[in-house]
C-alpha cells in the first residue's frame, strides 16, 4: 500500500475515506521514493483524491501536503477557477479534451498518458509559472487503473528566455515596436484572414517630417528620443488587434484589421494631432515635429494583393509630403 501519512503522503484521508488502492507489491517503498524525488509529483486514486503530494510539489505550489491529501481540491493549486488537471483527464478518459481546456498549450497525447507545456495560474504560489506536466496511469494486478501519477517541471525561466529571443527577432531595438519582419508576417496573416472573412484591411504609412534636419540639429541621441516618443504616441491610438511597426528609419506602418477607409482616416488624424501635441522643437517651418500619413484600404481578393495595399498607402504618403506635410492623404480614387 502507498502510505497515507508522512510529510509527502500527507495526513489522513478524512473520515470514512477508504484506504488507497494497492499499486505495487511494496507500496510503502514507492511512496517514500516519490516523497524524496526532487521533481514535483502528486498521485490521485481512482476517486480523484490526492494520495501523494511530495515535498517538491509543496515547494512549487505553495500548498502543504496536509491540505490536499485525501481531497479532490488539488486543482486549486494550479488554477483560479475549477478545471481538471492532466491526472483528472487521464482518470476520466478525456485525453482529447486537453486541447479544449488548455487551447494554447503544447500537448502530446498517447492512448494512456498526457504531456503538456502551458502557463498555470498558481494562485497559492502567487505567480504564474510555465510548467511541463506529464500524467500517466498506474495499473493494478487486474489490469485496471489503480491511480494516476502526475509529474511537473518548472520551465518558466526557459520560457521567458525563449520569449525574449523571439522578441529580439520581431521587435525593433530602439522603439520596442514590431520590426519590419514582424510587419511583413502580420500583414500577410491579416490579409489571409481578411480574404477568408471578406473584411476590409486598412494600412497607414506614417513618416516623420523633416527628420534629417531634426537629427542634424539634435544629434543621433536626440533623434532616437524623438522616434521613441513618436512611437509611443502612435501606439497610444491603437486597438488591441492593431499592429504598429517601425517600417524603416523614421517611417512607421500601422495595420488596422477590419477597419474601413473612413475609420482609418480618423485614426490617422488622431495620430497626426497626437504627434503635433508632443511639441518636439523643430527647425522646420512648423516649429514642432510633425508627421505625414498615407492611408489605404482594400477588401482582400484574388484581384489584389497585400503588396498593392502597401504601394497604395505609400503613394498616399508621398502625396501628403508633396502637398506640404503635417497632413493625411487618401488614395486618389477615394480622395476625389
Structure write-up:
- The structure is a single chain.
- With 336 residues, this protein is α+β, with helices and mostly antiparallel strands.
- It has two domains: 27-160, Beta-Lactamase (2-Layer Sandwich), CATH 3.30.450.20; 171-335, Alpha-Beta Plaits (2-Layer Sandwich), CATH 3.30.70.270.
- The chain contains eleven helices and eleven strands.
- The protein has helices at residues 27-36, 55-61, 65-68, 86-91, 98-101, 156-170, 180-197, 211-235, 261-277, 306-322, 332-335, and strands spanning 41-45, 50-53, 106-109, 114-120, 129-139, 145-154, 200-208, 243-248, 251-257, 291-299, 328-329.
- The strands form two sheets. Strands 2-1-6-5-4-3 form a six-stranded antiparallel beta sheet. Strands 8-9-7-10-11 form a five-stranded mixed beta sheet, with helices on both faces.
- The radius of gyration is 29 Å and the shape is elongated.
- Its EC number is 2.7.7.65.
- Residues 199-333 form the GGDEF domain.
- Residues 114-167 form the PAC domain.
- Residues 26-105 form the PAS domain.
Amino acid at each position: 500500500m502507498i502510505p497515507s501519512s508522512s510529510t509527502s503522503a500527507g495526513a489522513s484521508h478524512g473520515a470514512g475515506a477508504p484506504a488507497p488502492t494497492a499499486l505495487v507489491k511494496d507500496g510503502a517503498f514507492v511512496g517514500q521514493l516519490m516523497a524524496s524525488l526532487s521533481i514535483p509529483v502528486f498521485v490521485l486514486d481512482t476517486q480523484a483524491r490526492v494520495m501523494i503530494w511530495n515535498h517538491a510539489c509543496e515547494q512549487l505550489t505553495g500548498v502543504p501536503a496536509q491540505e490536499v491529501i485525501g481531497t479532490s481540491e488539488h486543482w486549486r493549486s494550479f488554477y483560479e477557477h475549477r478545471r481538471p488537471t492532466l491526472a483528472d483527464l487521464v482518470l476520466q478518459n478525456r485525453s482529447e479534451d486537453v486541447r479544449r481546456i488548455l487551447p494554447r498549450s503544447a500537448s502530446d497525447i498517447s492512448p494512456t498518458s498526457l504531456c503538456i507545456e502551458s502557463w498555470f495560474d498558481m494562485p497559492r504560489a502567487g505567480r504564474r509559472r510555465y510548467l511541463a506536466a506529464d500524467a500517466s496511469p498506474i495499473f493494478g494486478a487486474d489490469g485496471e487503473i489503480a491511480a494516476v501519477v502526475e509529474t511537473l517541471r518548472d520551465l518558466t525561466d526557459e520560457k521567458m528566455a525563449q520569449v525574449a529571443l523571439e522578441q529580439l527577432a520581431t521587435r525593433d531595438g530602439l522603439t520596442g515596436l514590431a520590426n519590419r519582419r514582424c510587419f511583413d508576417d502580420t500583414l500577410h496573416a491579416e490579409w489571409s484572414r481578411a480574404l477568408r472573412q471578406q473584411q476590409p484591411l486598412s494600412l497607414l504609412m506614417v513618416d516623420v517630417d523633416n527628420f534629417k534636419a531634426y537629427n542634424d540639429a539634435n544629434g543621433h541621441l536626440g533623434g532616437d528620443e524623438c522616434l521613441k516618443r513618436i512611437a509611443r504616441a502612435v501606439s497610444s491610438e491603437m486597438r488591441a488587434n492593431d499592429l504598429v511597426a517601425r517600417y524603416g528609419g523614421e517611417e512607421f506602418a500601422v495595420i488596422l484589421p477590419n477597419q474601413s477607409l473612413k475609420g482609418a482616416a480618423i485614426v490617422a488624424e488622431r495620430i497626426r494631432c497626437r504627434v503635433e501635441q508632443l511639441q518636439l522643437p523643430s527647425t522646420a517651418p512648423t516649429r514642432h515635429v510633425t508627421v505625414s500619413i498615407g492611408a489605404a484600404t482594400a477588401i482582400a481578393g484574388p484581384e489584389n494583393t497585400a503588396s498593392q495595399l502597401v504601394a497604395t498607402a505609400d503613394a498616399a504618403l508621398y502625396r501628403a509630403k508633396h502637398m506640404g506635410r503635417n497632413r493625411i492623404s487618401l488614395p486618389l480614387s477615394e480622395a476625389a
